[in-house]
């Protein structure tokens, strides 16, 4: 009986702590979104000259898919910038791309590292979240990015992407890329000023 009482009290503390973190996270995000003014424009894959790719670098198989896709886009004449995330607090030796780790995320889930800040400040024509998942640091970067058009996995956090792709298995990056390219190549965009 004592075990269940202790377990219940501990669970209540964790729920309170998680609710507090979530509240602080969304307060910070809303404040930053209110201060940020970015013109969002739908952009087809053909029209995009600069592409940013956000991805989970902890998974070696996914890493090779991201590199292959990055190379494909570069061969099409696009300027591609990568930002990887390593799900560890340990030091990471990586020189192929900029990255951030758990050490670069504050208590509430907000990225605080220089790599993430520089990536968010880049005015990409197209930003693609190839993480295959949704989590607070990725959502934060996507939401505050200066990118014109943002593509990511389907989530209830509609503030983080302009186009959400719902696949049966979001961890299957090859399928996600195929679906994203399908929709991005079908898009036609015409931006006309509103007559005065």
Q: Helix and strand string, N-terminal first?
A: HEHEEHEHEEH
**Model regions low in confidence, pLDDT < 50 over at least 5 residues:** 1-7
| CA-based gyration radius | 19 Å
- How are the strands of the largest sheet arranged? 3-2-1-4-5-6
Write a concise synopsis of the structure shown.
With 196 residues, the chain is α/β, with parallel strands linked by helices. Helix content is 41%, strand content 15%.
Keywords:
41% helix; disordered N terminus; Rossmann fold; six-stranded parallel β-sheet; 196 residues; alpha/beta
Describe this structure in words.
Helices cover 41% and strands 15% of the residues. It is an alpha/beta fold and 196 residues long. It has a domain at 50-186: Rossmann fold. Helix 4 (136-144) links the parallel strand 4 and strand 5 (150-153). The longest helix has 34 residues, at 2-35. It starts with a helix and ends in a 10-residue tail after the last helix. Residues 1-7 have low confidence and may be disordered.
Topology:
Elements: H1 2-35, E1 50-56, H2 60-75, E2 79-86, E3 99-101, H3 114-121, E4 126-129, H4 136-144, E5 150-153, E6 163-165, H5 173-186
Parallel strand pairs: 1-2, 1-4, 2-3, 4-5, 5-6
Helix pairs in contact: 1-4
């Amino acid at each position: 009986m004592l075990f269940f009482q202790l377990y219940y009290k501990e669970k209540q503390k964790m729920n309170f702590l998680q609710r507090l973190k979530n509240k602080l996270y969304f307060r910070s995000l809303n404040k930053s979104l209110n201060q940020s003014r970015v013109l969002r424009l739908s952009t087809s894959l053909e029209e995009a000259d600069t592409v940013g790719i956000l991805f989970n670098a902890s998974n070696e198989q996914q890493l090779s898919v991201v590199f292959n896709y990055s190379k494909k886009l570069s061969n099409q004449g696009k300027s591609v910038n990568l930002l990887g995330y390593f799900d560890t607090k340990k030091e990471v030796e990586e020189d192929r791309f900029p990255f951030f780790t758990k050490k670069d995320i504050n208590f509430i889930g907000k990225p605080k590292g220089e790599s993430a800040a520089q990536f968010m400040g880049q005015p990409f024509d197209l930003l693609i979240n190839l993480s295959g998942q949704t989590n607070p640091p990725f959502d934060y970067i996507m939401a505050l990015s200066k990118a014109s058009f943002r593509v990511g996995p389907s989530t209830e956090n509609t503030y983080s992407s302009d186009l959400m792709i719902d696949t049966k298995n979001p961890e299957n990056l090859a399928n996600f890329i195929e679906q994203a390219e399908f929709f991005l190549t079908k898009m036609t965009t015409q931006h006309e000023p509103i007559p005065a």
